[in-house]
Each structure stands twice: as C-alpha cells, then as structure tokens.
Amino acid sequence: MAPSHAEPSVAGPSYLDAERGLWSWLTTRDHKRIGVMFLAVLLLMFLLGGVFALALRVELLTPGETVMGRLAYNRAFTVHGVVMVWLFLIPSIPTAFGNFLLPLMIGARDVAFPRLNLASFYLYMLGAVMTLWGVFQGGVDTGWTFYTPYSTVTGREVMPVLLGVFVVGFSTILTGINFITTVHTMRAPGVTWMKVPLFVWALYGTSIIQVLATPVLGMVLMLVALERVAGAGLFDPSRGGDPLLYQHLFWFYSHPAVYIMVLPGMGVISETVCAFSRKRPFSYRVIVWSTVGISFVGFLTWGHHMFVSGQSTFGAGAFSVLSMLVAIFTAMKIFTWLGTMYRGSLWVSTPFTYVLGFIFLLFFGGMSGVAVAVTSADLHWHDTYFVVAHFHFIMVGASLMAFLAALHYWFPKMFGRMYPEGMGIGTAVLIIFGFIATFLPQFLLGNLGMPRRYADYPEAFQPLHVASTAGASLLGFGFLIVAVYLGWSLRHGRAAGRNPWGSEGYEWLSDSPPPEFNFHAPPRFPRPPHDYANPGANTEVEHAA
Amino acid sequence: MRHEASPRPVEPRALHFGDEASRQDAAHLGMWIFLATEVLLFSVLFTAYALYRLTYPGVFQQAPAHMDVFLGTLNTFVLVSSSILVALAVDAIRNGRDFAAAALLALSVLLGIAFLFIKAAEYTKHVHDGALPGAWYAYEAFALPGANLYFTLYWVMTGVHAVHVLVGVGVLVTLALRTLAGEFGARFHTPVELGGMYWHLVDVVWLFLWPLLYLT
Q: For this UniProt entry, which residues form the secretion signal (chain A) (predicted)?
C-alpha cells in the first residue's frame, strides 16, 4: 500500500516549537523532549563505544602487538564494554523511544511522574560523566563485569566507574517506576490491557525487570566499593569471604539485563512487523504472554554464567534447563512474527529490512545460546570467542537492529521528516552483512579455542580475525552513512505528514511531530491497535469536555 | 469539582489524570514499586548474611553476646513508636486535624533523631572495642575466623539502614513544615501518606535487622 501523504496539519505548534531555547529543553518535563535528549546522548555513547570496538579489531588484525600494548588493550575492551552495556544498550530503547512513545501509545498526555522523568535523565548524565571520568582518568582493566577479587585490587579508577554505574542504575529504576505507573494509571478510555500496543507491553515487562533487578546490582556495586575502601572481605577468600557470592549477585542483575536490552527490541519488532505486513499480529496474546514469560524466566537463569566457577552439579543442571526455557518464549515470538508476515502485504522499507535482519540474527544468536546453556558444551566454549559471538548476536544483532528499526520507523513521528528510503534500505543491507561478517568468524575462532579478552593469538587464527575486522569496518562505515543521511533529513527531508507508513498504531493518530500535550483533543480508541481490517476507526475526539 | 479537590492549581500536564483520586492512585502505585526496590536493595545484604551464617554458624551465634542488646532493643521500641506516631499523623490529616498531624510528625522526627543518637552511641562502643569492618577489624575478645565478616555485615546493614533513617527524618521534617504551612489537609494529603509509607518501610527493615544481629 502506498503511504498516505501529508494531511494539512491544523493547529498548534509541535513539541519542538512549543518553547524555544536551550533552557526550555534542559528544564523540560515533556516526555517527548526528554526522549529526544536521551536519544542524542545515547547516540554519542554509541559512537564512543563503537570507536573503541574498532580499535580492538585493529589490534587483533595481526598477532602480537599491532597498535596497543596489553594493558591498553585491557582498558580499551573495558571502555567498549562499560560504555556499550551500561551507557548504551541497557538504557537505549526504553529511555529514548519508550519515553517518547509510551504516553502517545496509550493516549496519555505525559508519563505519570514528569519531574521524576527529568530527574532520571540528569541521573543518567551524572552517572555517565562519573563513569567516563573514571575511564579516562587512566583506565579500568576489569572488563564490564568488575569481577572480584581482581576489581578490588586493581587501579583506583575502578571507584568512579562503580559509582557511576550505580547512579545510572538509579536512573533506570526511576524510569521503570514511571513506566509501570503510567501504564497502570494513565491509559486513555478504551485502552484495556488487551488493547495495549505491543511495544508498550514490551516496555512494561522490561520495566518490571529493571525495577526488580537493578537494586541488587546497586547494592553489590556498593559492596565492591566498600571492599576497596575498607577491605570488607565479603568477596575475598583470604578474609573468609566468598568470591562466588559476587558472581551470583552480579548475574542476578546482569543476566536479566540482557532481557532489558532485548525485550524492548522485540516490542519494536512486533510493532513494525504489523505495520509493514498490513496485518493484525498473529496472536496478540501469545506475544504478550511470551513477553511476561521472558521477564519472569529471565530471573531464573543467572547461574549459567558460573558453570565453571565451582557451582554444584545440581545447580548447573537446574540453571541449564531454566536457561533453555527462555528459548521457548523467544521461539513463540519468532513464530508470531513469521505468522504475521505470512500472507501479509509486505512493504520492504528500511525498518522492515532491519526487522528481517533482527529475526535472522536473533534466531542464530538464540540457538547458539541454547548451545552454550548445555553444561558439557559450555565447558568447551566457556570464555572463548564463541561466547563473545553469541552475546554480540543477541545484544548487537538483536538490540541494535531493533534500535535501528525503531530509529527509522519513528523518525518521521519524532521529527516530522522522511529520510531517503533507497539509501536506508541499502545501508540496512550493508549493516546486516557487515554484522554477519564480523561475528560469524568469531564463532569459528571460539570453537577453535581462541580465548576472549586476549590481545595476542597464534598465527593460525589470523585469517578469521582479518575477516572479522573487515566486517567491523563495513559495520562502522554503515553507521556513518546512517548518521549522515539521518542528520541531513532532520533539516532537508521532505515533510512526513501525520502517518507516512499508513500504520494502525495509536501513536500515529497524533501529528508528526506531536503537539506539546500529544493530542489536540482526548483520543478515543474503540479498536485495538494494529487492526488493519478497519483502517482509521480510531479517532481523536474534538472538544470532549 | 476537580479544583475543589486540590488546594493547589493543577498543572495542564497533570490534567490527564482527570481527578485527584486517580492522581493519588498513581502516586501510591509509584511509591509501592519504589518500596519494592528498597526491599530488593536490602535483600542482597540478607542473602550475604544467610550465606555467611551457613559458613560460620558458630560465629554468628556467639556474636550477639558481643553486641549491646539493650541499646538495640531500645532502638526497636523508639522506631516502632515513631512509626505509630506517623500512622496517627496520617489519620489526623485525613480527618482535617492539621495541627495535630504536624505535631505528631514532629514527635516522630524527634524519635527518629533519638534512634540515630542511640545508634551513634553503639557505633562509638564498637569503635572503642576495635570491632570495625573488614581489614580494620581488631576486636580481641572475639577473634574467631569469620567474626570480621559478621561485623562487616553489621556495619553495612545498620549503616545502610541509618542512611535511610536520616533520609526519612528529612522527609518527615519537610512534611511537618509543609503541613504547618497549610499545604496539606483533609482534601489533599498524598505526600504525607507516601512519606508515612517510607517511614514504615524503614521501620520494617529494622524489625528484621534487630533479631538477626542482636538476638539469637
């Protein structure tokens, strides 16, 4: 179906024009502006993490020292991991797109606690500045996991990083509280639980994980800080402590954190698949309940990070089985997306290209996840590039593809402009290809025994490393193109109109870009979202009061 | 009706709630979720306590003999009493007795401060004994392997709790002053209720710390 073009916008300035000046942005309580501010900062973080990723790949181009020494390499992969995980992937989709879209998608004027929302942004900024300050003070070489006892004895710069991550965690908790409360109390009349858009369901599940898991991370980071300051000994065997306790507590947060990264992405995919297949979702309920299922089971899998750390055999077996359960819920989701596409009227646009990439990469990464969840196989692959490739497939292949899909799908909504579509599709193909070229060789390397976090390797591994670095260069080049054409489109793209994709999501009933309080009049949603049988059945009601 | 329900002007962003009742619902739900995060924050410490109690059962049973059970128990009474006063304050403000509410809040603030002073007296004793956390542990009367872990946990658990008491006292002072200023009354008292909920949580956490650390 052809996109429906620019209907003349009737009244009211958009959220971008409602107030002007830097100060009005910095003190805004508008969820849309906060979302855009988050997006801007997150993209900077992504750039930073990406530059370090390329530096790592350059170092690994040849065996021996290529461009940096071993300590520098340790610090570089720590910066890459810390920035990408804590400052980009975990907050990315919820804070940027969630903030912008969640109220729009349930017909609300704003989130439940607008001031808390702004506080969350500034906490994130404070945490990010502390973390980066520590990182550039001289560098941290613990990796992003801060494993004890090493993290309690290495350089002093660990402290600001620990505290920075702690503060970022607070920001996450506040966003989670805000989202849950908003979904519970601020749905417009007609938006019953089974009519809540799928992206909102995904954000809801994510928020529950954030709220329940992040405090545990915060406290355990405090304990590591205490360990450094006072030699507390809780995680130090020489003082009677148990280092495994740190790993249990850390992964109790950090494994669910993977679902904090992936679930919102799955929500994005559920939205875009419906929009570009012109079909209602293949079983809305399965998508919803698999979201809830992943949020729940995600809490029961942390032990699979400790198969070789001295965990009991029974524990390892139980965690192995529980970890595999996640694959069942994920498979349910993949089937619903494929079912939605089946006999749909497919429109191969830029977001849809990323959707296809997402499904393939998630499937591949997820299946390799089942493989490493098998205890005996994990003994072979543990701490090798196989694991690196596996979690990059999930965290980059899935989260990042969904992030890019969201960026392209909602770009017209957020800024009221279109981008060059041909360019978008071409770059999407380039990025997906570059991604596969980067990480497929790493599966092979890991299987051959290349350990992770090593700056050096035997000659025999070089061809695969060269392939991986070549893929990473393609990937970096692809992101550069995206940055250029999206930046260009912000100013020069053609006007998008209210609903350029002809989507039946609730958020498209508002103007693009939306006015300050989202809707000119209270909206009415008699039909479910993603209902392509009755286009245009949902309306904005004029003068309901 | 809406404007009558709230003594303060309603900002346009909040209008979407429609009425004061649903704004209250949202505030309460938000607070309950926040309290859940607080429980999880402390749960890490309780987990660590359980683990080390299993590892060093003897140490953890003998340790309370080295604690000041009297001061700990006194503190329990102080905190529970202040919690009752806060509950009465919430009841008072709901019924429009503003001054009584402010007075009750002020009394509970005094008890909160008393709690902190008693805690400080206890800490001074521990410092004097050399019962400090981690590497600084030098308590000769109780020098079993694992004793330092008990005292580390003691300091962390009661320390984190004391920080919460301090924050709670700040919250209660603000609430008392704002009640005196006439900001809250029978029609609008959500902040008092939320502050009260927070104070009760602080109390409940102590009710778990007290038996774990002082009795056995």
A: none
Mind listing the pLDDT tens digit for each residue in A284-296? 999 999 999 999 9
Specify the pTM.
0.92
For the cut 60, the answer to whether the pLDDT of residue A8 exceeds it is no
Altogether, the residues listed in chain A come to a count of 545
Q: Residue A256: is the preceding peptide bond cis (ω within 30°)?
A: no
Q: Is B153 within 8 Å of A186 when comparing Cβ atoms? A: no
d(CA A527, CA A280) in angstroms, rounded, equals 12
Burial of residue A153 (number of CB atoms within 10 Å: 0-12, 13-18, 19+): exposed
| CA closest to A522 among chain B residues | B16
The whole-number average pLDDT for the span A278-282 is: 92
The answer to whether the CB of A404 falls within 8 A of the CB of A398 is no
Confidence of residue B6 (pLDDT cuts 50, 70, 90): very low
Whether omega for the bond prior to residue A513 falls within 30 degrees of 0, making it cis, is yes
Q: Report pLDDT digits (tens) over A201-214.
A: 999 999 999 999 99
Find the angle CA(B77)-CA(B82)-CA(B86) to the nearest 5 degrees: 150
CB-based contacts of B185: which residues, under 8 Å, 6+ apart? B7, B93, B96, B98
Over 60: is that where the pLDDT of A331 sits? yes
* Contacting residues of A for B54, CB less than 8 Å apart: none
**For position A5, what pLDDT does the model report?**
43
Tens of pLDDT, residues A50-61: 999 999 999 999
Chain B residue closest to A213 (CA)? B40
B38, B84, B30, B41: which is closest to B196 by C-alpha?
B84
Residue A318: exposed, middle, or buried by beta-carbon count in 10 A (0-12, 13-18, 19+)?
A: middle
Residue type, A486: L
Find chain B residues with C-beta within 8 A of A233's C-beta.
Answer: 134-135, 148-149, 152
Contacts of residue A22, Cβ cutoff 8 Å, sequence gap at least 6: none
N residues, chain B:
216
C-alpha–C-alpha distance, residues A112 and B57, integer Å: 47
Q: In whole angstroms, how far apart are CA A445 and each of A19, A365, A435, A461? A: 54, 16, 16, 7
d(CA A334, CA A287): 9
Can you tell me which residue has the tokens 């103007």? A511
Angle of the A70-81 helix axis to the A31-59 helix axis, nearest 10: 160
**A152-156: long-range contacts, CB 8 A cutoff, minimum separation 24:** A152/A224, A152/A227, A152/A228, A152/A235, A152/A236
Q: Rounded to an integer, what distance in angstroms lies between the CA atom of residue A337 and that of residue A402?
A: 14
pLDDT at B163: 97
Check whether A193 has a pLDDT greater than 90. Answer: yes
The yes-or-no verdict on residue B4 having pLDDT over 50 is: no
* Residues of A contacting chain B (CB within 8 angstroms): 29, 108-110, 112-114, 116, 173, 176-178, 180-182, 184-186, 211-216, 218-220, 223, 226-227, 230-234, 239-242, 245, 248-249, 517
**Among all chains, which residue has been given the structure tokens 């249990």?**
A248
Q: Answer yes or no: is pLDDT of B11 > 60.
A: no
Backbone torsions φ then ψ of A16, nearest 5 degrees: -70, -30
CB A136 within 8 A of CB A59: no
Residue B29: which of A184, A234, A517 has the nearest Cβ? A184
Output the average pLDDT for chain A: 91
Q: Which of A322, A111, A286, A137 is nearest to A198 (CA)?
A: A286
Contact A32, A410 (CB under 8 A): no
Residue in the structure block whose two tokens are 């008491």: B165
What DSSP element (H or E) covers A539? strand A539-540
Q: What are the beta bridge partners of residue A451?
A: A384
State how far the Cα of B196 lies from the Cα of B181, in Å rounded to an integer: 18
Model pLDDT, residue A189 = 84
Contacts of A241 in chain B (CB under 8 A): 149
Residue with tokens 């993490």: A49
Contact A232, A152 (CB under 8 A): no
Residues in Cβ contact with A516 at an 8 Å cutoff, skipping those fewer than 6 apart: A12, A13, A14, A15, A18, A30
